[in-house]
Amino acid sequence: MPAPDLVTAELTLTGRLTTASNATFLGGIGDAAVVYKPIAGEQPLWDFPDGCLAHREVAAYLVSEALGWNIVPRTWLRDGPFGEGMVQLWQETDPEQAAVDLVAADDVPDTGWKQVLEGQDERGRIVALIHEDTPALRRMAVFDVLVNNADRKGDHVLPMPGGHRYGVDHGLTFHGEHKLRTVLWGWIGEELSAEELDGIDRLAGALQGKLGDQLAELLTGEELAALAARCTRLRRTGRFPGPTGGMPAVPWPLF
């Protein structure tokens, strides 16, 4: 049988993620498993306009596609049982992998990982926040800088079989003011690779065409201008930035 039309075919709900801060449901469209976040279930935030998180999730997917890095699973807007919302293809992760982790401070691996910070756990033990040092995660860190991701938690990085890494939960993105909060700070000051610079160039070029028109339906003019400015600034510096401003550098909780 042909695949169902993911925009118009019936969306049925099968469960709810009760740990999510906004209404988040599991469902299906034919044989396709999906996540559904209705706009009506979004909680008001002091620093983001109401009723826009689903649009930002779709915008993040479009930017991921323009970069050519397949960071965000396919994401789109459509109607559902609780009205219009964001729908995203569900991803089955590899439970044997972890791209971001908390370990005892004296157990940080010598190679293959980057340490972000140290702190104390609830028992007073010194622990370290670490993440993989891989091209896939580097690309996600660049993506987060470009979309101004204010909420890159550890469990928003999905470790897939075969080593691919998806990023999810991009409602807190594209703010016109600097909001970058992420657990992926391990490359501060390092030069961007040729592949990463090429991706930024692809995005900057796409903003002048169809992508710019698509994003104009999802974001404000100020937010689009800020996105273009971040492309220009990151391309000019050619290095991973560090935290700036008075905002916390990492989200809380970390996972």
Characteristic key phrases:
2 domains; 5-stranded antiparallel sheet; 3-stranded antiparallel sheet; 10 strands; 25% helix
Q: Could you describe the 3D structure shown?
A:
- One of its GO terms (molecular function) is kinase activity.
- The chain is globular, with a radius of gyration of 18 Å.
- The strands form 3 sheets. A 5-stranded antiparallel sheet has the order 1-2-3-5-4, with helices on one face.
- With 255 residues, the protein is an alpha+beta fold.
- The mean pLDDT is 95.
- β2 and β3 form a beta hairpin.
- Helices cover 25% and strands 20% of the residues.
- The protein has 2 domains: 188 residues, no CATH class; 31 residues, no CATH class.
- The protein contains 5 helices and 10 strands; from the N terminus they run βββαβββββαββααα.
- It starts with 11 loop residues before the first strand and ends in an 18-residue tail after the last helix.
